[in-house]
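Two entries, shown back to back:
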Amino acid sequence: MIWVLMCVLISLSVADEVDTDLEHSRTIYVTENGPRLSVLSQQAKVVSQRGGNATLPCTIQRDQAMPPNRKMRIKWTKLTSDYLKEVDVFVAMDYHKRSYGRFYGRVHLQGSSPLDASLVITDITLEDYGRYKCEVIDGLEDGTTVVSLDLQGVLFPYSPRLGRYNLNFYEAERACRDQDAVVASFDQLYDAWRGGLDWCNAGWLSDGSVQYPITNPREPCGGKNTMPGVRNYGLREKEKNHFDVFCFTSNYKGRFYYLIQPSKLTYEEAVGACLNDGAEIAKVGQMYAAWKLLGYDRCDAGWLADGSVRYPISRPRRRCSPTEAAVRFSGFPDKKHKLYGVYCFKCQY
């Protein structure tokens, strides 16, 4: 009897140890039903122009089983051209809304419904071009989407009076700004190449790379046995390396025109003539915008603000760019020469 009782106690003890081991090695299976919140954009790209408005679409899709959350956070940022940083644009949480930096007072949510996170940008500037990220955070759930804002406009190569390959990156930025433009992006250069731009001088782009577009391969421009394309020198040191620059400009609010004068002018006389007409001497970017976007055509060489002499031809003809529509460049002549007219620009506010 004692022996039987001892066997029973030993059996219970072993069973208890087995149960304990099973308890510690239990496997738990979790079923994942997918995200309860997602963020979508109906358009990957929105096209506008300088001075216009644009709506960057962003729609929230939310599991109906999730309880309402007044603390859901919507944040818009702008990606830098090298994609290494994000610049704050707009943040909203319930009734609290804030716009940042140069976007202050120019951006707001469309808000057509509680799930509409679309961003409206007004009075668009050249610097607004680029890619924007819409991020929504709802408790532990979050989602993002990216939308591009493209601008109608024109790209043009630029070098200063000093001549070819004299600009580091920061000087190139300033040179474009001085001509009512910004440093162009690779996408803008690529579009211009597809449109027929052929230029054998390498220039800075906004991402810090140096490239140039070739539609007619030839020996001094990468070799005549190479394929047409955008030639790429890669990323260069922004302070040490010197090249030309590709600038980009868009529509303007104002009037670009050739000022009729009784005689030809020196540069200083040209500046004064525009001022006397209630205007200012025009910039290179304004001439390109008038030529490309408005079809401006004038076969008279005239001074521009940077001291260069140019004239825009949209209808090629004998003695006026007979082979192609283009902005013709006559160089940087001595500013004391009385050989040219002047192009003026009058702002409209």
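entry 2 starts here
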Amino acid sequence: MAGFIFKNKSMALCLVLVICSFGLCLVSTHAELQRFEQPAKTEGTLSFLVLGDWGRKGAFNQSEVAVQMGRVGEKMDIDFVVSTGDNFYDNGLTGKQDKAFVESFTQIYTANSLQKQWYSVLGNHDYRGNAEAQLSRQLRKIDSRWLCLRSFIVNAELAEIFFVDTTPFVKSYFTNAEGHTYDWRGIGSPRTYIANLIKDLKLALSESKAKWKIVVGHHAIRSIGHHGDTEELVSKLHPILKANNVDFYMNGHDHCLEHISDTESPIQFLTSGAGSKAWRGDIKEQHRDGLKFFYDGQGFMSVQLTRNEAEIAFYDVSGNVLHRWTTTKLLHSST
């Protein structure tokens, strides 16, 4: 898997580079965010699974969740998998050769239906280890499904998915690390990093012509789980999503499954952070406006898209459907 990525803001021409695995194309445009092309099915549909907070070498029902993901993935004929971060516990990877990568990923998600591209972002626990290791191409040589970057875009024809590195937004990780050490290499000044990321995200969202716009980050904008709302994202990210007609914001961080409808826009906040260890009974009672579903056990989420309809489903560790929600794009109505 080799190539060169050129970024030149004065150039209108895009250079397309092919990544060998899964037939993906990496596109570098005048914007800073790297873009990957993910073809939809020939019939014009798109389906994928969303999983977060999972990497525990199979413990805390991680293996059981993986089995059900494989079954649902086969039934849906999924195109790819999205990981919402906290990919390896408790403190990320120690380096590119850390056996935890194989023990928590390759040896766990073994179903044929899951041998598709995995698009991943970093979570706060990933930053507590060697964050650069997860971004390395070396891991793709070990398991070609793996693709993890700080922030990037996947163009899946029906939808554009904007992956956002949310951990540097959270001030407490810098001011009150609670004894943890974070790998901030590649971040530099958090203020500058966030400002540049916001600028690039605004531009990419405003230029998007996709039928569905999806943003993925590790931290929640809205949640009634253990961590609750992420105030930095409420103030900095939420207004951008509203202004650019984003349909879904998907995250992990809280170890639960959750669906909240925005009270200020059509945005749906979808938490899938139950890939292994869950937090039973850890629920905030306040600020429940728009809450449609909450489950404090293990599981995952599926997404099915056509040009006019989206269906979201949440599954528990036994593969039971806990919550299903559909919306039609033309009418902005839901059932």
